[in-house]
């Protein structure tokens, strides 16, 4: 089997409501999504999606995905998409780094492989749990009452996992936010307090030590792995790392040095399923739990994350973010796993199990060859 054509589509994805990153320091209203269609000489087509969370969050942006694919296209067309590591090596040789540009191609390859072998991607990744994965909300930063109102809205839809944004310049307010939300936490809920790198080492130590008795988990409390290593020495709260978890080398350092108890694996950031499954296995080997997430995007991006999440044993998976519920558009009506009663479940459908409506995507912005 060979890839005969690679087509690229661009689509703006407006959010239902304005979204404020930790501490209200960045506002997001629309996401720039890239969709990839791989056609093969066997008549099997695969789809992928790469949607960075804007261009001010981390070093990734929508137009960069498309520029990267243009650079790599000649190295991709003609390869066997079922040989995902061959495709991975070809992309890495052609364009070192830029993992976020490679992820949608990798995703489309896994979709084709699943269809070729008539298996869901989760089974190809090792084993698909019968049970689905708790869906995690993402709670925009704001006043404590406002944040709780968002959590309550998600609760009404069955969500039990929430990522609440903290990390403002007013650390007293952060302490108040955490204590207020924790006082309202339900017994079965998973609440992750996501700092998005906003704290200095001093601010992180003050807030985390001030609420240490609550036993809450903080995500990315510092800018870099070196910052988190320093914070780790003077705090006892559990830590999750996502923004500084980009490469397998990052994952190895985190595990070896005991920097975190949780991996936040964002598939667009790490380069797709081929690279993410190595992080999954490393985490399990070191007793590290995981959140699995798209960086942003539609039901397609959520489905990729759900496939990986459902290949992770129950003891190691915390939740899987659902971004699709934050969007004002749906590019795949009636297709793919949806969040039902707070859970995302992938079924026995071969491949990813989701296909976009090409009429909603419009004409390709580029095709190769």
Tell me about this structure.
- There is one protein chain.
- 37% of the residues lie in helices and 22% in strands.
- Helix 2 (84-94) packs antiparallel against helix 3 (99-117).
- A hairpin with a 6-residue loop joins strand 1 and strand 2.
- An eight-stranded parallel barrel has the order 4-5-6-7-8-9-10-11. A four-stranded antiparallel β-sheet has the order 3-2-1-14.
- The chain has two domains: 3-119 and 360-368, 2-Layer Sandwich (Enolase-like, domain 1), CATH 3.30.390; 123-344, Enolase-like C-terminal domain (TIM Barrel).
- It has 369 residues and is an alpha/beta fold.
- The chain is globular, with a radius of gyration of 20 Å.
- The protein has 13 helices and 14 strands.
Give the SSE layout.
Elements: E1 3-20, E2 27-40, E3 45-50, H1 62-76, H2 84-94, H3 99-117, H4 121-124, E4 133-139, H5 144-155, E5 161-165, H6 171-183, E6 190-194, H7 201-210, E7 217-219, H8 225-234, E8 239-241, H9 248-257, E9 262-266, H10 267-270, H11 273-285, E10 289-293, H12 299-309, E11 317-321, E12 339-340, E13 343-344, H13 358-361, E14 366-368
Parallel strand pairs: 4-5, 4-11, 5-6, 6-7, 7-8, 8-9, 9-10, 10-11
Antiparallel strand pairs: 1-2, 1-14, 2-3, 4-13, 12-13
Features:
TIM Barrel; 369 residues; four-stranded antiparallel beta sheet; alpha/beta; 2 domains; 13 helices; eight-stranded parallel β-barrel; 14 strands; Enolase-like, domain 1
Distance between the termini: 17 Å
Task: Sketch the major β-sheet.
Answer: 8 strands, parallel, barrel
Tally of helical segments = 13
How many domains comprise the coordinates? 2
Classify the secondary structure makeup into a structural class. Answer: alpha/beta
The tally of beta strands, per DSSP, is: 14
Strand/helix succession? EEEHHHHEHEHEHEHEHEHHEHEEEHE
CATH topology of the largest domain: TIM Barrel
- The CATH superfamily of the largest domain bears the name Enolase-like C-terminal domain
Low-confidence stretches: none
The first-level CATH class name of the largest domain: Alpha Beta
Radius of gyration: 20 Å
Strand content: 15-25%
Task: Give the % helix.
Answer: 25-40%
Strand arrangement across the biggest beta sheet: 4-5-6-7-8-9-10-11
Global mean pLDDT: 96
């Amino acid at each position: 089997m060979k890839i005969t054509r690679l087509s690229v589509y661009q689509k703006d994805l407006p959010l239902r409501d304005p979204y404020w990153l930790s501490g209200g320091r960045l506002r997001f209203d629309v996401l720039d999504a890239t969709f990839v269609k791989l056609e093969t000489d066997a008549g099997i087509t695969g789809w992928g999606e790469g949607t960075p969370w804007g261009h001010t969050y981390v070093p990734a942006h929508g137009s960069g995905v498309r520029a990267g694919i243009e650079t790599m296209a000649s190295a991709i067309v003609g390869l066997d998409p079922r040989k995902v590591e061959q495709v991975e090596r070809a992309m890495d040789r052609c364009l070192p780094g830029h993992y976020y540009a490679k992820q949608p191609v990798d995703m489309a390859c896994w979709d084709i492989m699943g269809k070729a072998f008539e298996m869901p991607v989760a089974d190809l990744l090792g084993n698909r749990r019968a049970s689905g994965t708790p869906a995690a909300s993402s709670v925009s930063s704001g006043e404590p009452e406002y944040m709780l109102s968002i959590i309550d809205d998600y609760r009404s839809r069955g969500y039990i996992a929430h990522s609440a944004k903290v990390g403002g310049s007013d650390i007293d307010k952060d302490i108040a936010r955490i204590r207020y939300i924790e006082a309202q936490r339900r017994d079965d809920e998973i609440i992750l307090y996501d700092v998005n790198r906003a704290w200095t080492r001093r601010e992180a130590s003050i807030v985390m030590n001030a609420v240490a008795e609550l036993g809450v988990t903080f995500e990315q409390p510092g800018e870099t792995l070196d910052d988190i290593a320093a914070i780790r020495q003077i705090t006892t709260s559990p830590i999750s790392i996502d923004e500084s978890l980009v490469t397998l080398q990052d994952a190895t350092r985190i595990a070896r040095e005991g920097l975190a108890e949780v991996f936040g694996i964002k598939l667009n950031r790490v380069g797709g399923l081929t690279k993410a499954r190595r992080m999954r296995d490393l985490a399990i080997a070191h007793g590290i739990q995981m959140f699995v997430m798209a960086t942003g995007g539609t039901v397609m991006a959520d489905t990729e994350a759900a496939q990986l999440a459902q290949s992770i044993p129950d003891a190691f998976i915390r939740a899987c973010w659902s971004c699709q519920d934050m969007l004002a558009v749906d590019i795949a009506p009636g297709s793919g796993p949806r969040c039902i009663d707070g859970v995302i479940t992938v079924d026995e459908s071969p491949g990813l199990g989701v296909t976009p409506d090409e009429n909603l995507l419009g004409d390709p912005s580029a095709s190769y060859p």
